[in-house]
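Batch manifest, entry 17 of 40.
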Amino acid sequence: MNYTLENIVNHICDKIKAHQQELELQYNASKVEIGHFYIDDILPEAIAKACFEVFPTQSEMRCLKSIREYKYVSAQMDKHNPLLEKVLYAFQDKKVVALIGEICSIDQLYADKTLYAGGLSMMADQNFLNPHLDNSHDAERERWRVLNLLYYVTPNWKLEHGGHLEIWPNGPKKEPVLIESKFNRLVVMATHQTSWHSVNKVQSNEASRCCISNYYFSPEPL
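Output type: structure tokens
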């Protein structure tokens, strides 16, 4: 099936609108520390599965390996299947951005059209991302980074596989809140000067945890 950008945007908007009140409650309950919400089955299953099926291999991505992290990334969307680009930029559509702004009570939100920090990420067996804070601004340092959007597309990804988002509302020396990287789940997380987060180590050699990520910026910090 040939999925259009408009079709994908409409699916996202319809799903968010159907659960908007619930999502606002999620975010408001957590925003004093690290505001976040998640919504499952954000796109039709067929689209989510298609994203996974055309996701680039490790050899087509850049490996980031250090004490801080071990993962594979790519922001060169024109080198990959067009579906991935459509889904990534669907989350940057003005209608989607406006809806998420309503949920998080942020008046001015701007998508990261240059993919300064967004794009594709893959985490295979033993990959990880240690607790850290995101960069505070966009590439030109004109706007503050305020929201991180993570869309997971690996089918049948289970708790025991690892590779899950951890947020640390009381700092990296305390206990984290774990948010599973479930298939077809969108997670939205606030980014600010105390929004410590990480990804625990992947413990699966059957598949890799694949994610399509975006950042939103604003003239004012959270």
